[in-house]
Fold:
Amino acid sequence: MGGENQGPLKRLAFVSSIGISMVLATFIGLYIGIKLDDFFSTKPWLTIIFLLFGIAAGFRNIYVLIKKYGG
Structure:
C-alpha cells in the first residue's frame, strides 16, 4: 500500500468504526433488555428501555469518535 492510499483507507476505517459502534451498542442494549425482561417477566418494558439506552449509547459513541478523530 502506497502513501496515496493512506488517506482514503483511514477515512474508510473511520466510517466503519462509526457504523460498528452504533450497531453494537444498540444490539447490546437490546440483548440486555430481552434478558432482563425474561428474568423479571416485564415484557416488553425493559426491552424498550434498554433498546433506547443502547441507541443513546451508540449516538454518544459516534459523538466521541467524531470529536476525537473527525475534526
Residues 6-40 form the longest helix (35 residues). The chain has two helices and no strands. The chain has a mean pLDDT of 90.
